[in-house]
Design brief:
This protein has 502 residues and is mostly helical. Among the domains are: 22-110; 121-210 and 270-365, no CATH class. The protein has 25 helices and no strands. Helix 20 (404-415) packs antiparallel against helix 21. The longest helix is centred in the first third of the chain and has 32 residues, at 112-143. The termini are far apart. Residues 73-447 form the Citrate transporter-like domain.
């Protein structure tokens, strides 16, 4: 055999005396990581012996924060890197909890980290199943061409993009207190995508408007957001007191909406050539979706069941409808064919030739799994940082060193970066001595503060997945100063209108 040349042996060789090979590079990186981990674990072990409870000032805590920051940096650069947002946070979640578990093991505690992780997994499982049902219903409505028909109706009425901008925003604001901000945002975005499919700029502005409106609408109702539900269940704010936030929430929505409306495209939407005829079961799907939301709300309100139980029960409603549509498929197609032939509707006849029975697992398979996995990473990352002690430490600094008003305003700003659920949970866990006005203030800020970034609320994250390529972190970030103006205006309105509660 011929001898292999030195250049073939060392493909990474440079024109210098020092040779860098892949093995040497990876070995050095691995040794560096191992050294840091060893240093962190040894510090934790010594800290445990001295009775320290927090890991916030030890290498493991610092490493966890760095991992989280790097992961979120990749999320923020998703539009530039074309790297799906779930990938960095999934990796970060695993690394953080391996650090946490290793630190706990070194200190002789094998139970607390496991219990904390299970608690976070329970929170995520409820969120996962809730979102899965909501997205399945929306995909089923789309498959039944409900949104195509709605788009055709809106366009046929001659609504401009500006009118549609306000219609979808107002609907999101008034529906979210009854349903919830996430489900409302998903529903309105589906309509928006169909109505404005020929104008990417309109879709981006409309999605931002929907996120703001849905979050603002959810802030004055116990059922509108998870944070308001937590405050209500804790008993610090009575049910009727939430409605004192209606006007401040409306200001939060209207101020940025008015300013953004000047940037809405002036040209009218493209007219539909023919009216769209919905598939069988479209209206019944809407009715079952409303029944599902009602089931979830009633079960949670009166029986104190998690909302996800009602949502999963509602998934059964859709499954039974799917079973009926499958069993009556041939009879239904024959009836529609007769109608289409009598009315000479060639478009409907072409659709009937390609018709297939409804299968619920098709809309379920089209669920935005990248978004659901992103939520997994976020919940576990934040849960890990909470176990380390960072959330409690931040809350302690806010309510010990600052006044309540400044702290509650800062809570809203933090909720735009870190999910508002753990932030509100940390505030409720501290039980600061505050007036009803301050509790309503933190409820308002935690609810609407997440609108300042697309990753700051569940509605924003979900819409980034649903309107992929149109609504992104950067498109939202361009309007953050305007949204912050609405945030400040809503706080000022609350402190003026409800001054007697402070």
């Amino acid at each position: 055999m011929n001898e292999i040349s030195s250049s073939e042996k060392l493909p990474f060789r440079r024109c210098s005396k020092r040779i860098l090979t892949p093995d040497s590079v990876f070995a050095r990186v691995a040794l560096a990581i191992l050294a840091v981990f060893t240093l962190g674990f040894s510090s934790i072990a010594s800290a445990a012996e001295s009775g320290a409870q927090s890991l916030t000032h030890h290498p493991v805590g610092y490493i966890a924060v760095i991992i989280f920051v790097i992961a979120y940096a990749f999320v923020m650069l998703e539009e530039k890197l074309h790297l799906r947002k779930s990938k960095p946070v999934l990796l970060a979640a695993g690394l953080i909890w391996f650090l946490v578990a290793g630190a706990a093991a070194m200190s002789g505690d094998t139970e607390s980290a496991n219990a904390a992780l299970k608690h976070n997994l329970l929170e995520y499982s409820e969120l996962l199943l809730f979102l899965l049902v909501a997205m399945t219903y929306i995909n089923a409505m789309e498959e039944r061409q409900l949104f195509d028909a709605l788009r055709g109706w809106l366009v046929s009425k001659g609504f401009s993009y500006l009118s549609l901008f306000w219609i979808t925003g107002l609907l999101a604001f008034f529906i979210s207190p009854i349903a919830d901000n996430l489900t409302t945002a998903l529903l309105m975005c589906a309509v928006l995508m169909k109505v404005g499919e020929d104008s990417p700029k309109f879709i981006a502005l409309g999605c931002i408007n929907i996120v703001i409106a849905a979050n603002a609408g959810g802030a004055f109702s116990p059922f509108g957001d998870i944070t308001t539900l937590m405050v209500w269940q804790k008993g610090v704010v009575e049910f009727t007191e939430f409605f004192r936030l209606f006007i401040p929430a409306a200001v939060n929505f209207l101020v940025p909406a008015v300013i953004m409306s000047f940037a809405v495209p002036s040209e009218p939407p493209k007219d539909a050539s023919d009216p769209v005829i919905m598939k069988r079961g479209a209206r019944r799907t809407v009715v079952l979706f409303l029944l599902t939301i009602t089931t979830a709300v009633l079960g949670h309100n009166f029986l104190h069941l998690p909302a996800v139980v009602g949502m999963m029960m509602g998934l059964a409603y859709l499954q039974f409808l799917g079973y009926y549509l499958q069993r009556s498929f041939k009879r239904g197609v024959a009836r529609e064919r007769v109608w289409a032939e009598n009315h000479k509707n060639t478009r409907l006849l072409e659709r009937l030739d390609k018709a297939v029975p409804f299968d619920i697992f098709n809309p379920m398979a089209r669920t935005e799994w990248d978004t659901l996995l992103f939520f997994y990473g976020v919940v576990l990352c934040v849960g890990g940082l909470g176990y380390i002690g960072y959330l409690a430490e931040v809350s302690q600094i806010l309510y010990s060193d600052w006044n309540a008003t400044g702290a509650n305003i800062a809570v809203g700003v933090m909720s735009a970066i870190v999910d508002n659920i753990p932030v509100m949970f940390a505030v409720l866990s501290m039980e600061p001595d505050m007036s009803h006005g301050q509790w309503l203030l933190v409820t308002l800020t935690a609810g609407v503060g997440g609108s300042m970034l697309s990753i700051g609320s569940a509605a924003g994250v979900a819409l980034m997945g649903q309107a992929r390529g149109y609504y992104t972190l950067m498109s939202h970030l361009r309007w953050t100063p305007v949204i912050a103006l609405g945030y400040a205006a809503s706080i000022a309105t609350h402190m003026w209108l409800n001054a007697s509660l402070f």
